[in-house]
Amino acid sequence: MIEIDLLLTIVQRELREALKNRWLVLRTSIRGTRAGG
Questions:
Q1: Whole-prediction pTM value?
Q2: How far is it, in rounded angstroms, from Cα 17 to Cα 26?
Q3: SS3 of residue 3 by DSSP
């Protein structure tokens, strides 16, 4: 059970980082298009 908990924690952390990076890219792209338009 401990290994499963550890795996879930790692997966959650990876997902959070991926979402954060995607959100930053989305924000920068929106800002870029807004500034360019």
A1: 0.59
A2: 14
A3: helix
User: Tens of pLDDT along 11-20?
Assistant: 999 999 999 9
Which two tokens mark 25? 């890219």
What is the amino acid identity at position 24?
A: L
Lookup: tokens for 37: 């338009």
Q: Nearest-CA neighbor of 13 among 31, 21, 1, 28?
A: 21
Q: How many residues does the chain have?
A: 37
What is the rounded distance in angstroms from the CA atom of residue 9 to the CA atom of residue 1?
A: 12
Residues 7, 20: Cα–Cα separation, whole Å = 20
The owner of tokens 């290994």 is 3
